[in-house]
Structures are given as structure tokens and as C-alpha cells.
Amino acid sequence: MKRFLVLAVVFATVGSACRAPEGGRDDRPLVIATTTILGDIVASTAGDAVQVEVLMPIGADPHDFAPSARQAARLRDATLVVANGVGLEESLLDVIDAAEQDGVEVMRVGELVDPQPFLAGLGAATQGSASSGNDHQGLDPHVWMDPVRMAAAVEAIADRLGTSAGVDVIDSAAAYQTRILDLNVEIVRMIEAVPPDRRKMVTNHFSYGYYADRYGITLLGAVIPASTTGAETSAADFAALVRLLKREEVSVVFGSTTEPTTLADALAEEVGYEVKVVKLPTGSLGEPGSGAETYIDMMRSSTRLIVENL
Predict the structure, then answer these.
(1) What pLDDT digit, counting tens, does each position of 285-301 carry?
(2) Strand segments (E) across the chain
(3) For the chain, which terminus, N or C, has the lower number of CB atoms within 10 Å?
């Protein structure tokens, strides 16, 4: 069913920058973003100066999304392709590289915002057992989980739109950058409501390294001990995580709306006391009405759930 939806939704569109003008023809430069999060960020940065199309539908896992042949061909119509990079879009790498070799300009945002090592946000006890999975040169690809980095990304995107698409988006980019920095301040205040000794998280896979590093949260462990959902959990890793949950008296495991929580549910049952599994909007924006329809809303909604459950 998930694959059917992927094929049925050739392109998702995000924000006002994606609406064609009256009359049906849209002559604005075409920017294609890989993820719904990047699509929203590009659209919010550019205002109405460009048309934005998004490869992945809402709810797709960016680690394993595979494009259709029509989507791969569409990349060659783009003035600019905006990708996360740092190995996130594992099943898109060959398609994006092929388009780039054909002359399409590609911007890999994650590589421009000081990507950190995969293990940087983890607690010391966890680092010894964490796997690098399919990580790109040992770097964590989940850069959007740090709003400060995304504020810097907005400036980089605005600059690239000026040089590649010939559009001036300085004013809209500055306004959006301010909103993201305000979001960072808001998240800091929300996290302050959690006692310092309770600022500890166990997640489905290691996608919260930047977030934890920015907001003073300790990542105790993950059900899939890697930064990609394509990795596997060994019996030894699973048993070690059960012991860790008991030792730390963890009462919640945070999953993602883009990933199955089968292993997290099994972990919660294995511990022997009540452990909630809470899904956070992490790798994708949410459906309309979810409270996570934009990047800013997604980060605010995730933080609210984290604070409520810690």
C-alpha cells in the first residue's frame, strides 16, 4: 500500500511557492526538493519567486524512498535540485548523481551546515555499541533537527537561488530565517520545563543527535543502533537496550511517524513494566490537521510531545 501511494503521488507540493499562477502555465524557475521538510524550507525561503516540487510524499521514510522513473526524468527539468545529502536519501543517490552528471545543478544542504559525527549526540555508554550503519563518512544526516543549522541553510538556499535561478529572495529569506531562530528560542524554553535529570531519550534510530546536542538532552540508546532505518538490530543490542531501560527507569521510547515501531513495541513489552511508544514527526511533515504541516510546526509538535512524555 505504501509503495502504491509513492507511485500514485508523483510529486507533492508544499507552500505558496508551489501554486501555479492563474492561466495554468508556470514560467517560474523549477526547484525540486527531495524531502517534504526541504520542500517547505525552500518554499518558505523563496516566497512566490520559484515553483517548488517535492519528490517524497508526506509520511515517506527518507532513508528508503525510491523514485519512480517519471520522477527521475523530471529532475532534468529542474533549475535546481535541493537535497539533504550526507547520505540521507540512500535510494536516491544514483538518480541525483545521474541528473547532476547531465548538467542539473544540485545543492546538498546538509554538507553546508557543519554536519557532525554520527556519535556526537550519544551518551558515553551508548557509543560503544552503536553501529555506523550506512552512514556517509561517519556523519549524521539529520541536520534539520537543529533549527540553528536550518537558519543557516535558509541563507545558503537564498544565495543559491540568486545565482542559479536568478531570483532575489533576500527579504522573504530574512523573514523566514527570523522565524526559525524564534523557533529555536521557543524550543529552549519548552525544554527548560523538563528537570535536567529527566532530559534523556531512547529513540527508534539515532535521528535526534543534533536536537539532543542543541538542547542539552542525553541520548541513552536506540532500538536500531544506527543513523539509518536500513540497519538491523542484533539480539545482543536488543538485550543491552532492555537492560539500559531498566537501569535508567525509562518509561517512554520515541519512534517516528515515518517508521514502523514493531521493535520498539517489542522492547516495551520485554522491559516488564509500562513503557509508552510515542511517535514523533521527524523525517517528514505531517498530513493536514496533524499540527506538523510545516517545518516549524513539525519541530514545535515534536518538542511538545517530548516535553509531555519526559
Answers:
(1) 999 999 999 999 999 99
(2) 30-33, 51-54, 80-83, 106-108, 200-205, 218-224, 252-256, 276-280
(3) N
